[in-house]
Amino acid sequence: MTVRVVLLGPPGAGKGTQAERLARATGALHVATGDMFRQAVREATPLGRLAKSFMDRGELVPDDVTVGLVRERLSQEDAAGGFILDGFPRTRPQAEALDRLLSELGRPLTAVLELAVPDDEVVRRLSGRRVCEACGRNYHVEFDPPARPGVCDACGGRLVQRDDDREETVRRRLEVYRRDTLPLRDFYARRGLLRSVPASGRPEDVTRALLSAAGVEGA
Ligand code: AP5
């Protein structure tokens, strides 16, 4: 079955972790707007400079920029076999733009999966997160440590804390999530697409629950 899903959830809920696992399990394309912006920042492109000025403050990058990026990515050939949207949409205008784009492409969403995690767990996850500065892979000092402390298992790169994982910025990101993104639950519930999945268990258990909520057989 082709999956075309949105992962919804606060910063640190495990969207990136689960999107990667779901993409491996289903063959769907993983599209993460946060990763796309961080890559542009690493490459110091004009998009990267613009995105950084918002990300460092925990604010959202403007809708027109974000929608343009996703439109371009989802219109490519490798998205035809399904996709997992991680971190998009995050506002009502983004959700409406996604609806329009997918109806143009004739590929509607199959589900919106909400990762439900209590606030204190979110803070523990973000404060312990480390990312590889070379390839962007995520780790957690306690829950998902690398084989050698501070070194990426995949590429040997250095593991660092994300700039926007500082306490002040995390607080702002959570406020922005509640104000702009949480209302999308109702938006998708009204369309019969929303499935809420408890996501505070082990990553492999969360993946199983998400696959089952997405209607993937054998999950
Ligand atoms: P983005 O990168 O999307 O950040 P986010 O939504 O805040 O989400 P995170 O990446 O912080 O967390 P996650 O849910 O992916 O959790 P993860 O799997 O890493 O966006 C960053 C910024 O970019 C935004 O603030 C904004 O400025 C901009 N941006 C992006 N998209 C945008 C858009 N659409 N519009 C406008 N601006 C946009 O897990 C967290 C940690 O927990 C990890 O260390 C992980 O190892 C650990 N963990 C995961 N699962 C488990 C588990 N089950 N048990 C224990 N630990 C776990």
Describe the model.
The protein has 219 residues and is α/β, with parallel strands linked by helices. The chain has a domain of 149 residues: Rossmann fold (3-Layer(aba) Sandwich), CATH 3.40.50. 46% of the residues lie in helices and 15% in strands. The strands form 2 sheets. It has a 5-stranded parallel beta sheet with strand order 2-3-1-4-8, with helices on both faces. A hairpin with a 5-residue loop joins strand 5 and strand 6. Helix 1 packs across helix 9, helix 2 crosses helix 3 and helix 4 packs parallel to helix 5. It is globular and about 45 Å long. The two termini are 12 Å apart. The relative contact order is 0.20. BIS(adenosine)-5'-pentaphosphate binds next to helix 1, helix 2, helix 3, helix 6 and strand 6. The site of BIS(adenosine)-5'-pentaphosphate has 35 residues, from helix 1, helix 2, helix 3, helix 6 and strand 6.
CATH C-level class of the domain at 4-119 and 181-213 is Alpha Beta
Query: What is the number of helices?
Result: 9
Structural class: alpha/beta
Question: What are the bound molecules?
Answer: BIS(adenosine)-5'-pentaphosphate
Order the strands across the largest sheet as they lie in space: 2-3-1-4-8
Spatial separation of the terminal alpha carbons: 12 Å
Oligomer: single chain
